[in-house]
Design goal:
two-stranded antiparallel sheet, 52% helix
Length: 249
């Protein structure tokens, strides 16, 4: 996991040798120390399962660290009331729409079962898709909360494809692509700033200098890029639906 944290303020959030080990033996965060300065933007970048979501969830005690200290505004979070702590933190959670009371394999098999597939066939298809999205067979026995945020997203994609019928999966796939596109544009803007500047530098330098005109100018350009790409995907989606409609008649 790579951490980029520009900013000149004092540490608003601080991790000091933080570990998180789950009861099943999985180490999600190992000896993490970092400071997130006030007025800065901190970005956690890494592969699926490297501990990004767990790190964020520990800040407001949705998950407590196994060891180490996390401070928010210089206060050890374990000394604070969890509800009071959360009320003071704005938090946007990662959602994948999975059923929390069902295993990953059963989540993927949901639509085939609703379509009348036999349980054996539905679970076989789910197992096949687990491999397709890069998850192990062991992951199929787990529940959604036992997976990383990125892994949950993969399960969501697998569930959308499980019925193996384009008319059913297409709306979910296209919606997912359009949402992912917005995230990619935003991530690319941040990555450009981290790597070599570009439009991202225009936006973030404006933030650092509190130059509203510069920030809005850069943000509008980013938004235009995202909207144009989204409209292109929306047009492709309508064209595919029209093709499907004509083929059906």
């Amino acid at each position: 996991m790579t951490i980029y944290s520009p900013g000149k303020g004092w540490p608003m959030i601080k991790f000091d040798a933080v570990h998180k080990r789950f009861p099943n033996g999985t180490t999600a965060v190992d000896n993490l120390s970092l400071e997130m300065p006030e007025g800065g933007i901190t970005v956690l970048v890494g592969s699926s399962g490297c501990g990004k979501t767990t790190t964020l969830r520990m800040i407001n005690r949705m998950v407590d660290p196994t060891s180490g200290i996390i401070r928010v505004a210089s206060r050890d979070i374990l000394e604070a009331d969890a509800a009071e702590l959360r009320r003071g933190i704005g938090y946007v959670i990662q959602q994948s729409g999975l059923f929390p009371h069902r295993t990953v394999l059963d989540n993927i098999a949901t639509v085939p079962l609703l379509l009348g597939w036999g349980r054996k066939k539905a679970r076989a298809r789910a197992s096949e898709l687990l491999e397709t999205v890069g998850l192990t067979a062991d992951a199929g026995k787990r529940y959604p909360h036992q997976l990383s945020g990125g892994q949950q997203q993969r399960v969501g994609v697998a569930r959308a494809l499980a019925a193996d019928e384009l008319p059913l999966a297409l709306p979910l796939i296209m919606t997912g692509l359009r949402l992912a596109l917005i995230q990619v544009v935003a991530t690319a803007t941040i990555a450009a700033y981290v790597s070599f500047g570009g439009l991202g530098r225009y936006v973030f330098d404006g933030l650092a200098q509190r130059d509203l005109v510069q920030v809005l100018g850069g943000a509008v350009l980013v938004a235009v890029i995202a909207v144009v790409l989204d409209l292109a995907l929306a047009g492709l989606q309508r064209a595919l639906f029209r093709h499907r409609h004509h083929a059906a008649h």
